[in-house]
């Protein structure tokens, strides 16, 4: 670490630098990396300084098993109010009867859904992982696919869109206890109303996993599942720009079952410092400026998709309705993992990802997944998207021919632009 870098980290994190210089140096390195790279992973974002500060308060010191007014530890006078504040804000923002803000993250939140509504061996239904779903939607390598009988739906080969007629036929045939809609690599709007009709006909509990689009929903840039589904499961980071946590929102009739599934079913004490940061993020998401942000995320994604299409890239479903773009690099003859690693060296952070009907293995797939939440948080707009698309085009081309000089040139250009758009919450 250089003397300047050591001085910087000592100034921004004095206690950490004094207690553990080695760890402080790693934190400083990550701060600089997040500051001077173009972060395009759709599940990543920048939280505000207020969210970061709330995450590191003395609430870290407190155990609080149970729920407000019903704890197993004393001294909860302040913690109860913190959690009640987060719950009230979540209910208001998403129009829900009930909210539980205690799940540690998205996967535990989904596990609580199973514990609340299904028994081991029951059929559960969700989008197949290679088609854009999530591990916890009943996929085989997940506990949810081991403990329950996973029934999977996908997307059409010709359009890349969910065939709702096929979903209905499958649901009526298999009669799952739980149906998940939503996923992790879905560039198109989920038809919550249509899924709701299917679930009611099949007698299933419908869960909307909106982890990726929760911020867009809060900001009015994506339709809300409220009123169409029984349960909403979401993380609190990604487009919502909160800490790494999760929430379950539901109709009142499901409140008790979900609360009991989270605690004592799956967890002990909640992470109170995270609950506080969730409360801050929810307050921020209720502001008019956040609505502007959410719509800008979608506008940037659409503009970036158009610029990539103009450069000959193949996009799953032909584009995007939200924050996420799934690129199939088969026609470029560059594997997704190769492209992702090369782009990383160019200062463009993406993740390799399977595409529907991918002939390649998941660890070395054909595609990459990109998104616009983080760059929008920095203030980049639609006018910048052709430049971003050009960097991706040049980076993938350089990856194909092993041109490290070209990647280094892109890296310098990226750092220059990022310097002009400081990231929120970062001290560098």
TrEMBL record:
Q: Note the site residues: Plays an important role in substrate specificity.
A: 237
Q: Which residues carry this modification: N6-(pyridoxal phosphate)lysine?
A: 238
Q: Which Pfam families match?
A: SHMT
Q: Which reaction does it catalyse?
A: (6R)-5,10-methylene-5,6,7,8-tetrahydrofolate + glycine + H2O = (6S)-5,6,7,8-tetrahydrofolate + L-serine
Q: State the similarity comment.
A: Belongs to the SHMT family.
Subcellular location(s): the record lists: Cytoplasm
Keyword annotations for this protein, in alphabetical order, are: Amino-acid biosynthesis, Cytoplasm, One-carbon metabolism, Pyridoxal phosphate, Transferase
Q: Which SUPFAM superfamilies match?
A: PLP-dependent transferases (SSF53383)
Q: Where does (6S)-5,6,7,8-tetrahydrofolate bind?
A: 129, 133-135, 252
Q: What's the top EC group for this one?
A: transferase
Organism of derivation: Streptomyces cinereoruber
Which prosthetic group or cofactor does it need?
A: pyridoxal 5'-phosphate
According to the entry, every stretch annotated as the Serine hydroxymethyltransferase-like domain falls at 16-392
Q: In which pathway does it act?
A: One-carbon metabolism; tetrahydrofolate interconversion; Amino-acid biosynthesis; glycine biosynthesis; glycine from L-serine: step 1/1
Which InterPro entries does its entry note? PyrdxlP-dep_Trfase, PyrdxlP-dep_Trfase_major, PyrdxlP-dep_Trfase_small, Ser_HO-MeTrfase, Ser_HO-MeTrfase-like, Ser_HO-MeTrfase_PLP_BS, SHMT-like_dom
State the Gene3D superfamilies in the record.
Aspartate Aminotransferase, domain 1 (3.90.1150.10), Type I PLP-dependent aspartate aminotransferase-like (Major domain) (3.40.640.10)
Query: What does this chain do?
Result: Catalyzes the reversible interconversion of serine and glycine with tetrahydrofolate (THF) serving as the one-carbon carrier. This reaction serves as the major source of one-carbon groups required for the biosynthesis of purines, thymidylate, methionine, and other important biomolecules. Also exhibits THF-independent aldolase activity toward beta-hydroxyamino acids, producing glycine and aldehydes, via a retro-aldol mechanism.
User: GO molecular-function annotation terms?
Assistant: glycine hydroxymethyltransferase activity
- Quaternary arrangement and interactors, per the entry? Homodimer.
Name under which the protein is recorded: Serine hydroxymethyltransferase
Per its UniProt record, what NCBIfam families does this chain match? Answer: PRK00011.1
Q: What is its EC number?
A: 2.1.2.1
